[in-house]
Design goal:
Layout lengths: L5 E7 L4 E4 L5 E15 L2 E14 L1 H6 L8 E12 L5 E12 L1
Length: 101
């Protein structure tokens, strides 16, 4: 299996965090809140989630000083599982494309 693609719109919930790794790669982390109404079994269903977003390399560099809390964005990329030092796991969207909407 190789398919792994997610596109989501949402509002940036907090100021993005920019870091540079010891190897010199720039990273940007943020979270968006998504809210929409989707159709399921012929009926409307409210959909809501908070999605952590991670970017690295050139995209992270391009986003520096361009994203801010409250901004509405569209993000696409692939999802993967991250586990914290305290063994708390979560899905993270690794952005390959971000645009303000």
């Amino acid at each position: 299996m190789t398919d792994n693609f997610l596109q989501l719109t949402g509002i940036v919930t907090e100021s993005p965090i920019h870091k540079i790794s010891p190897s010199g790669v720039e990273h940007c982390n943020l979270t968006i809140e998504h809210r929409s109404v989707q159709e399921e079994a012929g009926l409307p269903r409210n959909a809501m989630c908070y999605m952590p977003i991670a970017t690295s390399g050139p995209l992270a560099s391009q986003l520096k000083n361009k994203l801010s809390k409250g901004m509405q964005i569209k993000v696409s990329g692939f999802i993967t599982y991250h586990q914290s030092k305290s063994n708390l796991g979560k899905l993270v969207l690794h952005a390959q494309y971000i645009e303000q909407i």
